[in-house]
Design a protein that fits this description.
The protein is mainly α. It has a domain of 196 residues: MetI-like (MetI-like fold). 79% of the residues lie in helices and 0% in strands. It is built from 13 helices and no strands. α3 packs across α6 and α3 packs across α9. The model has no long low-confidence stretch (mean pLDDT 81).
Length: 284
């Protein structure tokens, strides 16, 4: 009995230690962001929301928040527009290219952001393009950088449904390629698209290295302002970090909700697809 109790206690101890190790820095950051002072004792010397007030009243706060929001949403839209049709076409018409696409989707993990930024600057800083140091080039770099986060969820959703049967059934009813993609395929892989989009959004909103090298102070983002306050006042920087954490955690909760919604929706996917096919037939 003692051996059984020891074995059952050990996994809980390991998991608890891991959670403590992972959550302690985050909890400390939250505590530091509301501490009056925390450099002379173990516990904070008073609590205050002054640092959040300073952060929100900073003239750059809304600017950098808007810039990061625009970059994140633009990257999500461009990634969706490029990756979803490509993944669908490869799985439908060129299945032999799937290993190559899987390899390409993992390359951003092997290419450091600094190398990617410097390569894009050298390539696109020459006339007639002159796109380097612009937000447009930054979005293009982000699409490459976050390709694995969008591609894998989309591919997983595509492989979970029989897109060949759905496509052939829609074609037999006279539906065009446009209506097949937007009214038949997209509704069935929407959980993957939403999950990928939220992962891309959360990643880009907190990205610092590529933005610093490509645009710098010409288009300041939220992480740039966070680093600026790190050198000025760590408590204000902690408030910025908490805001960024909260946005990332909110995105994670939405991803979990989307995953649960997708699992519930999977059972009725075939029925919905049939309805979309029938509705797409008239007028084509």
């Amino acid at each position: 009995m003692a051996a059984v109790k020891k074995k059952s206690f050990l996994p809980g101890f390991v998991i608890g230690g891991f959670l403590f190790y992972m959550l302690l820095p985050i909890v400390a950051t939250y505590a530091f962001s509301i501490a009056v002072r925390w450099d002379r004792s173990i516990l904070p010397e008073g609590l205050t929301l002054e640092w959040y007030k300073v952060a929100f009243e900073d003239k750059w706060f809304l600017i950098v928040f808007k810039n990061s929001l625009v970059l994140s949403l633009s990257t999500v839209l461009v990634s969706t527009f490029l990756i979803v049709p490509t993944a669908y076409w490869v799985h439908l018409r060129v299945p032999k290219a799937k290993p190559l696409m899987d390899l390409l989707s993992t390359l951003p993990f092997a290419i450091p952001g600094v190398v990617l930024s410097l390569g894009l600057i050298r390539l696109y800083a020459q006339p007639p393009l002159m796109l380097a140091r612009t937000p447009y080039m930054l979005v293009a770099a982000y699409v490459i950088f976050t390709m694995p986060f969008m591609y894998r969820p989309v591919v997983n959703s595509i492989e979970a449904v029989n897109i060949r049967v759905l496509t052939e059934a829609a074609q037999s009813l006279g539906a065009s390629w446009f209506r097949i993609l937007f009214q038949v395929i997209l509704p069935n892989i929407m959980p993957g698209i939403l999950s990928g989009g939220l992962l891309v959004f959360a990643t880009i909103f907190g990205e610092f290295t590529i933005a610093t090298f490509l645009v710098g102070a010409r288009y300041k983002t939220f992480p740039m302002q966070l680093v600026y306050f790190t050198r000025r006042d760590g408590r204000i920087a902690a408030a910025y970090s908490v805001i960024s954490f909260t946005i990332a955690w909110a995105s994670s909760l939405v991803i979990l909700w989307v995953a649960a919604w997708g699992a519930k929706r999977a059972g009725s996917g075939s029925i919905q697809a049939s309805k979309n096919i029938i509705e797409s037939a008239p007028g084509d």
